[in-house]
Structure formats: structure tokens, C-alpha cells
Amino acid sequence: xxxxxxxxxxxxxxxxxxxxxxxxxxxxxxxxxxxxxxxxxxxxxxxxxxxxxxxxxxxxxxxxxxxxxxxxxxxxxxxxxxxxxxxxxxxxxxxxxxxxxxxxxxxxxxxxxxxxxxxxxxxxxxxxxxxxxxxxxxxxxxxxxxxxxxxxxxxxxxxxxxxxxxxxxxxxxxxxxxxxxxxxxxxxxxxxxxxxxxxxxxxxxxxxxxxxxxxxxxxxxxxxxxxxxxxxxxxxxxxxxxxxxxxxxxxxxxxxxxxxxxxxxxxxxxxx
Length: 272
Known about the structure:
This protein is of the alpha+beta class.
């Protein structure tokens, strides 16, 4: 019991001695740290605002702002440590040794960060684009250093580690997605008139644009019908809603104009 009391007393005396010797330094370090954090936040906001005024990509703008904030805070810590009687040279050597071991232990995490940095700098896609990667196609909601967050029409959040994006084939269609539909009409129907009818009907739904017009044409000659193919670009965030509207519009306009959608038929001949 006496030995434990002696150890506690020794530790207490060391703490009191340190506080007496470095009391003003501790107060100054606290003030410097508060000022450093304040300046870091302000400069990060200024950098973000400047990037937005220059119309830089939002992902790249956030990266520059975060890097500025972290760099200033790290510099502030390096400044205040010697004032507290802590030599930073041994820490730098220890951090280097630990960094080597940690790098070997967390190769996957570091590869995600490296891939994220590559995405931010090369910008194969930006926030708001529609990408198709790893069998998933969604809108890009957020790009972080370690992962990319996608979202779909149902509001689901899909998180993909960046190392699974870099090196893969990426389909980027900006904010839209191609919609492909098909409908069969009878062989005795006026094909050209039906194609014009479908183009006008879908154009009234707002899927017709100058840059990406609706494409309607003969897709295939089936056993019982001429298959008309329809291709148009629709907003990814309302893909299925527009798809349902388009199929209903196709059905209604063909029914209204008397264009027959034939049932599957097969001709069987009996040989004697």
C-alpha cells in the first residue's frame, strides 16, 4: 500500500512541477490552437467560395477546402508542441516507422485513398453524373477520398470503395440514362406513319431534346409482328416513372389510331 501511495505521490509531484514550469506555455498553446482552428475554418470557407466562383467541380472544391483546413491545423500542432516541452523530432521518426508498418497493414484502405485522389484529380465523373460501374448504375451523390456514394430513384445510398472504381470500365451519361423500349405492330400496318406517331407522342412527354432526339425505327421482323424499337434519354432520377409514362403513351396512341398489336401466332401445316 505504501509503495502505491509513493508512486501516486511521485506522479502528482511530476504533474504539479510540469504545470508550474509550463503554465504560461500551456495557456499560450491553447490560445494558439484556438486561433489556428479558427483560421483553418475561415480559410477553408474562403477556398471553397473561391473555387465555386471559378465554377470548379464541387468534389474538387471540397477537396481543396479540406486540404487547406487540415494543413493549417497540422502546422498549428507542430508550432505548439515545442512550447509544451515536447520535442517533435522523435515523434517524426516514430511516425515514419509507424507509417511504414501501418501502410503494410492497411494496404486496402490506402489503395482506396489513392484511388479517391485519382478520381478527384482526373474527374472521370462528377457529382450529378450517371455512372455505370461494377454492375450498378446510379447518380453520383458524393465523392470522398475513400469511397463514392451513389443514389438512385428510390433514394437508396450505394457506397462503392474507390479501389473498385479505378481500373474498371466506367460508363458516364451525365444526368440522363438511355431508355430502350419495343412494341410489335401487325405486318399490314403503315410502319412509317406509326413511327411518326410514336415520335410525336413521346415528344409530348418531354423526352425529346435537340441534343438527344428520340430514335424510333424498325428493330426486328418477328414471327407475328414488326418490332418497333424506341430509344430516348430520360433523367436518371425519374427513370422508372418516365418509363411507365412512355409505355402507357405508346399503348394509348396505338389503340386510339387503331394500330394492331398482334398476339403471337404460329402457322401449322398438316402434311398427308
